Amino acid sequence: MATEAPTMRRTPLYKRHAELGAKMVPFAGYEMPIQYEGIVAEHRAVRGRAGLFDLSHMGEFFFKGRGAGATLDRLVSSDIAGLAVGQARYGLLTNERGTIVDDVIVYRISESEYMVVVNAANIAKDRAHVLARLGEDVALDDRSFGTALVAIQGPRAVDILGSKTDADVRSLPSFGVTQGRVAGTRATLARTGYTGEDGFEVFVANADAAKVWDALLDAGREAGIKPIGLGARDTLRLEARFSLYGNDIDETTDPIEAGLGWTCKLDKEFTGRDVIAAKKAAGPRRKLAGLVIQGGVARHGHEVAHDGEVVGQVTSGTYGPTVEKNIALAYVPTPLSKIGTALAVRIRGKDVPATVVKTPFFRRPE
Amino acid sequence: MSAVPDDLQYSKEHEWVRADGDVATIGITHFAQEQLGDVVFVELPEKGATVRQFSSLGVVESVKAASDIYAPISGEVVERNVKVIEKPELVNSAPYGDGWMIKVRLADKGELTQLLSPTDYRSHIGETAGAGGD
Prior knowledge:
The complex is a heterodimer of chains A (366) and B (134). Chain A has 366 residues and is α+β, with helices and mostly antiparallel strands. Chain A has three domains: 14-57 and 145-239, Gyrase A, domain 2; 60-140, Aminomethyltransferase beta-barrel domains (Alpha-Beta Plaits, 2-Layer Sandwich); 285-357, Elongation Factor Tu (Ef-tu), domain 3, CATH 2.40.30.110. Chain A is 19% helix and 34% strand. Chain A has helices spanning 14-19, 39-48, 68-75, 123-131, 157-162, 209-219, 230-239, 273-282; strands at residues 23-27, 30-35, 51-54, 59-64, 88-94, 100-110, 113-118, 139-142, 147-153, 177-182, 185-190, 199-205, 226-227, 286-293, 303-306, 309-320, 325-333, 342-347, 350-357. Chain A has a six-stranded mixed β-sheet with strand order 10-11-12-9-3-13. A six-stranded antiparallel β-barrel of chain A has the order 14-17-16-15-18-19. A five-stranded antiparallel β-sheet of chain A has the order 5-6-7-4-8. In chain A, strand 6 (100-110) and strand 7 form a beta hairpin. In chain A, helix 2 crosses helix 7 (230-239). The longest helix of chain A has 11 residues, at 209-219. Chain A starts with 13 loop residues before the first helix and ends in a 9-residue tail after the last strand. Chain B has 134 residues and is an alpha+beta fold. Chain B contains four helices and nine strands. In chain B, strands 1-2-3-9-8-5 form a six-stranded antiparallel β-sheet. Chain B has a three-stranded antiparallel β-sheet with strand order 4-6-7. In chain B, strand 6 (56-62) and strand 7 form a beta hairpin. Chain B starts with 8 loop residues before the first strand and ends in a 10-residue tail after the last helix. The interface between A and B is medium-sized, with 17 and 12 residues.
């Protein structure tokens, strides 16, 4: 079992980030690049061309054995029993109170092997949560600290990755997962991401990360690929309305109010199912709503007001470089979550007008 | 553009001042905009408002975070830069030019002596004299 290092961890691509002039920040116990050239330029590169991300801080749990599928089906809110080999699915780790322990993607690698990708900040917590609920004929292998993750996202990602792998990435469906070689090195490739764009996530051993990173940056040069930091990762995911664990969802929020009811297969058994089903039947008291703010940038923790009264809180907020608006997510009472509702966000003591809008804020044109 | 123009005075909080008779133009430095990253919102006082030396006069927001702008000198606001409110990215592209913030009528010219010279500001941001600039 891995032990926590007393100092900040570095990913195997740390040297690359330094060479590329990245600004590094502490994040989930790692020194991670927040930006290279600038958040807006990086954001636009991903929407228009391609971007390369080092996400090696993310956790990878492998579940092996004949009972792996059954265990995961009980641990995760979505339909894992129905997952075929080569398919992946988004879902939630939930607890007995029906709140959210983490949001994860489950990849079925083979008949009896699954990979679950968890948030970096939750690795230790998730491991304990999972180990306490492990079923028969299944073993957990936490390879978080030995596995690197390089994501390539954007409309040109498929061509760039396609030129460097023997895997048939062009015909890999969305949320498909396969094995292959990337730049000559063994990799797990999945058509998943966190940007609202087409793209892939490439999992390799730490020792091979730099080789894959270099090959993809090089292959993408003509297409205009850029390395992308956590800053643009956040603006991209928020435009696409993907939840950020620790901001929009946590153990005080439930899937229904978070707008993640679609990830809960309520006609199967999973941890917290009954509570979540009851919540759904009763209707949530509050909902995570999308806001556009007219002047000023809303940030996590800002209060939301209605008729001068505080009614909720912003969980995520930024300037969206593609939608060119100040956007936010906030929990507000259900009657005030209707599209078009006029609210206000308290920014530096002033009530700045905001409107509830449809999400995602950005949807990739088909 | 030099990173620290020789014809300006500076505050430790990374604002610059260009005094011209009774009126001074105020903005934030190249170093400041670089630290902030992409500026997406600027909040400035109205014309006629009073600003006090080393007190907050407004806010710049980058994608990442909000930061106060401190008045390097006291005075009455005679003009605010409407262009920078409409196009906040001017703070990044032209911090000493079109990205200026406000013009004030100086309340006390003596305050200017409390500001840093270009040489002092360079050493304040850890830049050796003559180096930098782009």
